[in-house]
């Protein structure tokens, strides 16, 4: 079959060349329109339900909303787990499904379950299922500020103009506005006047609701025509509202203006924002699941460009705090530059080594054609050209180059040998024989290497979804390279070499290499024992350092887009947080490395995170002259620290998204405490957090749900209520209206809806002592102070209640210093050994720190199975047990150079990406070794040579040019990646390239020196000898 494919390619060589040219043009033109991204969709299918429940405290939200939703969601097909947050006024339930399910069907299932709750939720509480978002979630952070508009007017502009324009961009899921201050028509009832008029807030609410009602009136049918009635009686201004009658006392009308101040104002704040230190609005723009990040970003820029004249006229400035596309552009530019430099180096080396521009051109053209074919395969599979896919293509360069060089070098050598014969064969016959001669061994080698990468596809979980594109890209590249070697390479050889004279002399570099290699191989054979002692000592010496290698889940990204956080004591007010934010923003403004900084505090409606008012996030981007983001981030922490009672920490946006996608929290280590009692959970969590802060390598150790937030407890006294005639509904409704506000109507202004809200004056709402005198209406129409019917006391209660699969938990997130990830987890587990938990409590560890360890063990386990499969394949290919054993025993020696390169370059930690580099080394060593052993077999079986030292030497000499060229070209192709290791976009490819470069040296020595020496002594390829 292989011969038939090659024969057809030779027979129709012009057609093959034309078809490949058309394909290359087609694929190259499609590259700019490909879907690029930062990472693949690594988060399991997740549907989020957000429910606003104004006025309810965290425990009420838990009992009345969250518990009911979780109960309805239990048992959904494909459900993996549920995670929820219940805090004052809002419930968030994340429904996580197993990978492989249809996320849109999952959303339908959740919609049905939520609908089944029906009227089981409190009146006016409606769950909202948020749009499905991509793994990175956010595509852009925008700061909106104005030196002319008030924050309320700026909010109106955002709601009516900016936000709708951004939501209209295809691929945008949602636009969340932090710090917005929407306008309300506020009815601020004055308690002294309520008491004088003997009116309760519930009575005022009813009257105000009637005063602001908007109703249709239908039509009048006269017989000849139908006349539509347009009643205009709804309140639209503060004057109309103040004149509205709400009650009669002694036949005298009481208007809203008599008992309240009517004004326009903002609602109570649960969040705020600063744009470069000034009050503003922080817009967080999320992308839909599967959307193209670059396309969405371009659409957003176009939408903002159209709005620019309108915004400019009103003194509005848009600040780009953070754009994910910047990292993608930087990464693509860096990888493209590295590959371009590598391509130039490859061309130069091929030409100098082979001494023939035609041969060099054929070898080189195979590389871009194979990589373009691989990108089309990825596109067909729906895989974006993300960081992981590009890494797979980069490390496949070695195998792609090997395919090209092995085939062309063999054709070139056979043509040269044919020319020296007395009766040379036709050139096409020589090309056919030379191509087929190495094809079976290349196929076995390709299949073996493909099997090596299968464990990456089987990792499962977040690691599997994250690294699968790397494995698929690698396999797609080597399979494409195999197809190119069977079709294009013979066709080009026939077109460019068949009718052109080939020099009988070898190129000078190859002649010099053969002479040097022959002498070295002779020395090794003469001093074989000494050579083996040195190799074994090197191997065990490097193996002894393996336990000292630092480990991590992913490398430290050098992305310029970073997130800084600061946190104070639970219950800290927004005003205090704003004051701290202004101090921090002023310090950051003095740093030339920071382009812009936008702070948001607390939460916003429908935001992804729902922290309390004591937590803030600062989105910023470093300037382009910052080359080391880790060092710059560390410097910023030293700049901003010093605020008493405030903790700061910082990480790149990409790292936080991976942490959050894995565990739901933005830290590498998550310690979860389970238990039946909230008080015991809080006590255990606080003690554990204290222990973790004392471990070396600890960064910020944060209790995600502080158990002791300052609270005012209002406990109704039933006896007093009966005495005065106060109902529980009137009591609770009055408290809610007074301090949260009760919406009694709406005014419609274009696309904006302005609520009419009944509440108390600010001086009452901000004074805890005013609670005692809050007027409560009785059933007999009189007024009684709240203090007469309820006990009011200051206490502490949870700010946030977390659930994991319906069980209450406390979560401790731990930021770990660079280089301490692996050791920190072990130290944390050891430190908690013997910890005395409250009855029924226990602890689990999660996050990327744990998942990385699990993924590494899984990779090693699947790698062992893959190795068994490879050994079986080698047995079929070689047919000799000793040869297979020799290859298997020699493979670990290829790692010597990789480990040495790790220590010499100080590339940091062994992330999963570096482990993939070691897997690649196995593939290179296996491929070279297998090709050499199969060539030995051909010399004995096909050419009838005896199995002796001369045959061993000749076989090694025959393979020398291909092995050296492959190693040199691969090294030069990866050298730019290695030199830029740690740069933006090369955080994964760079360390992998370094490991592979170091391993190429030891793998080449293994193939050229160790294997021939061992094969001569322990393996037999004689046709009449059975092993």
From TrEMBL:
Keywords (A to Z) from UniProt: Membrane, Transmembrane, Transmembrane helix
Keyword Secreted assigned: no
Entries under Gene3D superfamilies matching the protein: Multidrug efflux transporter AcrB pore domain (3.30.70.1440), Multidrug efflux transporter AcrB pore domain like (3.30.70.1320), Multidrug efflux transporter AcrB TolC docking domain, DN and DC subdomains (3.30.2090.10), Multidrug efflux transporter AcrB transmembrane domain (1.20.1640.10)
One Gene Ontology MF term: xenobiotic transmembrane transporter activity
Keyword ATP-binding among UniProt keywords: no
GO CC annotation terms, alphabetical: plasma membrane
Listed InterPro entries: AcrB_DN_DC_subdom (IPR027463), Acrflvin-R (IPR001036)
Pfam families for the chain: ACR_tran
Record field: transmembrane: 12-31, 331-352, 383-406, 442-466, 472-497, 530-554, 859-879, 886-904, 910-930, 960-979, 991-1011
Name under which the protein is recorded: Efflux RND transporter permease subunit
Protein species of origin: Acidiphilium acidophilum
């Amino acid at each position: 079959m292989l011969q038939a494919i090659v024969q057809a390619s030779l027979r129709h060589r012009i057609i093959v060349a034309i078809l490949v040219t058309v394909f290359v043009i087609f694929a190259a033109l499609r590259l700019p329109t490909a879907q690029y991204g930062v990472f693949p969709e690594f988060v399991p299918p997740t549907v989020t339900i957000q429910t606003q429940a104004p006025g309810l405290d965290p425990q009420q939200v838990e009992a009345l909303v969250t518990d009911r939703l979780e109960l309805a969601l239990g048992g959904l097909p494909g459900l993996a787990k549920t995670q929820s947050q219940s805090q004052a006024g809002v419930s968030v339930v994340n429904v996580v499904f197993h990978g492989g399910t249809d996320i849109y069907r999952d959303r339908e299932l959740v919609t049905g379950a939520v609908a089944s709750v029906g009227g089981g939720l409190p009146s006016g509480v409606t769950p909202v299922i948020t749009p499905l978002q991509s793994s990175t979630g956010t595509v852009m952070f925008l700061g909106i500020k104005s030196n002319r508009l008030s924050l309320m007017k700026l909010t109106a502009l955002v709601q009516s103009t900016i936000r709708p324009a951004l939501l209209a961009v295809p691929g945008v899921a949602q636009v969340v506005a932090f710090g917005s201050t929407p306008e309300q028509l506020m009815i601020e009832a004055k308690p002294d006047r309520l008491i004088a008029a003997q009116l309760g807030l519930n009575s005022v609410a009813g009257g105000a609701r009637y005063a602001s009602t908007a109703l249709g009136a239908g039509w009048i049918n006269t017989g000849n025509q139908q006349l539509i009635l347009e009643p205009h009686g709804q309140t639209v201004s503060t004057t109309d509202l103040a004149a509205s009658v709400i009650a009669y006392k002694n036949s005298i009308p009481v208007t809203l203006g008599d008992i309240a101040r009517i004004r326009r104002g903002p609602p109570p704040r649960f969040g705020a924002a600063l744009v470069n230190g000034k009050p503003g609005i922080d817009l967080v723009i999320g992308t839909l699941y599967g959307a193209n990040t670059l396309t969405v970003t371009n659409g957003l820029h176009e939408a903002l460009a159209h709005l620019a004249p309108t915004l400019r006229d009103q003194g509005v400035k848009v600040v780009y705090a953070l754009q994910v596309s910047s990292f993608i552009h930087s990464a693509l530019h860096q990888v493209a530059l590295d590959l371009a430099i590598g391509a130039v180096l490859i061309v130069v080396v091929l030409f100098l080594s082979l001494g023939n521009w035609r041969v060099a051109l054929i070898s080189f053209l195979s590389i871009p054609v194979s990589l373009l074919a691989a990108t089309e395969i990825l596109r067909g599979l729906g895989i974006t050209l993300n960081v992981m896919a590009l890494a797979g293509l980069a490390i496949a360069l070695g195998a792609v180059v090997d395919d090209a060089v092995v085939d062309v070098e063999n054709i070139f050598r056979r043509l040269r040998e044919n020319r020296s014969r007395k009766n040379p064969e036709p050139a096409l016959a020589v090309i056919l024989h030379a191509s087929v001669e190495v094809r079976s061994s290349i196929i076995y080698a390709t299949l073996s290497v493909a099997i090596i990468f299968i464990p990456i596809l089987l990792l499962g979980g977040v690691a599997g979804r994250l690294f699968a594109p790397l494995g698929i890209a690698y396999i797609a590249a080597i399979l494409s390279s195999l197809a190119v070697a069977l079709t294009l390479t013979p066709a080009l050889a026939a077109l460019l070499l068949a009718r052109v004279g080939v020099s009988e002399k070898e190129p000078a570099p190859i002649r010099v290499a053969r002479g040097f290699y022959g002498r070295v191989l002779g020395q090794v054979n003469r001093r074989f024992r000494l050579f083996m002692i040195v190799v074994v000592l090197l191997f065990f010496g490097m193996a002894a350092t393996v336990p000292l290698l630092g480990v991590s889940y992913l490398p430290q990204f050098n992305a310029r887009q970073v997130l800084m956080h600061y946190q104070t004591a639970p219950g800290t007010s927004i005003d205090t947080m704003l004051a701290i934010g202004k101090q921090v923003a002023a310090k950051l403004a003095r740093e030339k490395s920071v382009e812009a900084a936008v702070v948001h505090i607390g939460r916003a409606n429908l935001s992804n995170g729902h922290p309390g008012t004591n937590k803030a996030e600062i989105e910023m981007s470093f300037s382009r002259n910052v080359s080391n983001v880790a060092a710059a981030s560390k410097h910023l922490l030293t700049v901003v620290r010093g605020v008493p009672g405030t903790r700061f920490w910082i990480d790149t946006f990409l790292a936080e998204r991976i942490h959050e996608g894995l565990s739901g929290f933005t830290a590498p280590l998550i310690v979860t405490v389970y238990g039946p009692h909230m008080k015991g959970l809080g006590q255990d969590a606080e003690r554990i957090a204290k222990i973790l802060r004392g471990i070396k390598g600890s960064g910020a150790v944060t209790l995600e749900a502080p158990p002791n937030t300052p609270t005012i407890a209002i406990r109704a006294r039933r006896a007093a209520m009966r005495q005065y005639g106060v109902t529980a509904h009137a009591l609770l409704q009055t408290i809610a209206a007074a301090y949260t506000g009760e919406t009694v109507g709406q005014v419609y202004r274009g696309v904006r809806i302005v609520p009419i809200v009944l509440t108390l004056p600010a001086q009452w709402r901000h004074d805890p002592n005013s609670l005692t005198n809050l007027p409560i209406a009785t059933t007999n129409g009189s007024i009684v102070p709240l203090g007469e019917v309820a006990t009011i006391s200051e206490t502490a209660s949870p700010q946030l209640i977390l659930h994991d699969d319906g069980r209450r938990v406390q979560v401790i997130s731990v930021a770990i210093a660079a280089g301490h990830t692996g050791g920190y987890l072990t130290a944390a587990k050891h430190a908690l050994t013997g910890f005395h938990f409250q009855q029924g409590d226990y602890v689990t560890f999660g996050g990327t720190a744990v998942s990385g360890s699990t993924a590494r063990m899984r990779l090693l386990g699947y790698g062992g199975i893959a190795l068994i499969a490879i050994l079986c394949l080698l047995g079929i290919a070689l047919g000799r047990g000793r040869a297979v054993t020799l290859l298997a025993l020699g493979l670990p020696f290829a790692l010597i150079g990789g480990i040495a390169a790790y220590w010499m370059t100080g590339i940091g930690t062994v992330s999963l990406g570096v482990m993939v580099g070691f897997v690649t080394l196995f593939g290179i060593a296996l491929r070279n070794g297998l090709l050499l052993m199969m060539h030995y077999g051909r010399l004995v079986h096909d050419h009838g040579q005896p199995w002796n030292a001369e045959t061993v030497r000749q076989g090694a000499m025959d393979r020398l040019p291909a092995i050296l060229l492959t190693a040199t070209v691969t090294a030069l192709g990866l050298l730019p990646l290695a030199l830029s290791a740690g740069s933006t976009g090369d955080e994964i490819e760079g360390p992998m390239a370094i490991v592979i470069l170091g391993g190429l040296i030891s793998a080449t020595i293994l193939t050229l020196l160790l294997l021939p020496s061992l094969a001569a002594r322990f393996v037999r390829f004689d046709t009449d000898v059975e092993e």
